[in-house]
Amino acid sequence: MKLKLLKKLHGDMLKGKRIIVRVDFNVPLDEKTKITNDVRMERVIPTIEYLENQKAKIILMSHLGRPKGQRVKKLSLDPVAKHLSRLLGKTVNKLNDCIGEEVEKEISMMQDGDVVLLENLRFYKEEEENDPVFSMKLARLADLYVNDAFGTAHRAHASTVGVAKLLPSYAGFLMEKEVEVLSQLLKNPEKPFVVILGGAKVSGKIEVVQNLINMADTILISGGMSFTSLKAKGYYMGKSILEEYDLDIVRNMLENAQKKGTKIILPCDLVIADRVSSDAEIRTVKVDEIPKNAKAVDIGKETILQFNSELRKAKTIFWNGPVGIFEIDQFASGTNQIAQTLADMKGKAITVVGGGDSITALEKAGLLPFITYISTGGGASLKFLGGSILPGIEVLKE
């Protein structure tokens, strides 16, 4: 996949030009709107600094949360601008809107090397609708477009597709690296290649498994997808989180893997609780022993041993999604042990981790530096590995 790359532009191609950059500053905030994980912000600093050094005028745009076309004060990008100012060591001017005369006036007064951040794009419903008029209003702010928001590349929104079709458009350094690393996993992973999928959702992951059956040696399935898979095999799952899904599709996926010689490993034991609470009573049971009123909240010790045994044989590992409800400490044992095993594989295997929750688990354990590559896009990385066309990337092709 050949993309039009920002790194090929320099000098007069950028000097004094207004560059609008789609970034993914959809970062987690606590109750006091303090940023609790800034990995996505740190990863776009090289692109911003490159544009600064080339004396461009840098206009950043992002969404935050799901305001659904309404102005929601707690989802303003004010705290993001303050944090970005600290990361860059210079003032980032946060504007009060993302389109309109006032925004255009502020941008017209920018000096070479200045950085401004537009207000939350999703304060306008037209952003997610890829509205052509909204796209035109954004495009009017700039001379060139750069997409460095891999985490939103699977969305055909105004800021990822609409603007890109109206301006000369390029992939930033982060976007370039994400595509390069994930393409390597699809085309030529060092074997054995082991994939571990977790998280609550099933949709999207089935397609990934179906695509990876031809490439991966072993696929370890946990979380909501494992509950659905176990149910498809006839197991009773109590009150475990189960996304409505066509079980015949899941059965066909499992049968196809067997035919292709790809191992799919499901949990053999699970930690169960009477409720999702830090004071819940927990115990470990075999997958055929889940009581009617219990919920599975983590993988059990035998499953952890089995998963870790497969991971330690690997030369390439991709992990997306925690294996339990890791936000509650007593349900986090499986996720923490998987994270530690991946960290222990440094120098022995290529480890790629995608998805905000997996990254949070690694960061909480202080293990991020031991991972080969952290992908900033959970849903986007799954779509990519599932063989889907990502509209935000498609418009950047040469």
Q: Features of this protein?
A:
398 residues; alpha/beta; Rossmann fold; 2 domains; six-stranded parallel sheet; 36% helix
SS content category: alpha/beta
Radius of gyration: 22 Å
Q: Name the average pLDDT.
A: 94
Q: What CATH architecture of the largest domain do you see?
A: 3-Layer(aba) Sandwich
- Strand portion, in percent? 15-25%
**N-C termini distance:** 9 Å
* Quaternary structure of the protein: single chain
Largest sheet: 6 strands, parallel
Shape estimate: elongated
Per DSSP E runs of 2 or more residues, the count of β-strands stands at 15
Tell me the number of helical segments per DSSP (H or I, 4 or more residues long).
Answer: 16
Name of the level-1 CATH class of the largest domain: Alpha Beta
Question: If you had to describe this structure to a student in words, what would you say it looks like?
Answer:
- The chain has 398 residues and is an alpha/beta fold.
- It folds into 2 domains: 6-178, Rossmann fold; 189-366, Phosphoglycerate kinase, N-terminal domain (Rossmann fold, 3-Layer(aba) Sandwich).
- 36% of the residues lie in helices and 16% in strands.
- It has helices at residues 39-43, 45-53, 78-88, 101-108, 125-128, 132-139, 158-162, 173-187, 205-212, 223-232, 247-260, 301-313, 333-344, 356-364, 378-385, 391-394; strands at residues 18-22, 57-61, 93-94, 115-117, 144-147, 169-171, 193-197, 218-221, 263-265, 269-273, 282-286, 295-299, 316-320, 350-354, 373-375.
- The strands form 3 sheets. A 6-stranded parallel sheet has the order 3-4-2-1-5-6. A 6-stranded parallel sheet has the order 9-8-7-13-14-15, with helices on both faces. The chain has a 3-stranded antiparallel sheet with strand order 11-10-12.
- Strand 13 (316-320), helix 13 (333-344) and strand 14 form a beta-alpha-beta unit.
- The longest helix has 15 residues, at 173-187.
- The radius of gyration is 22 Å and the shape is elongated.
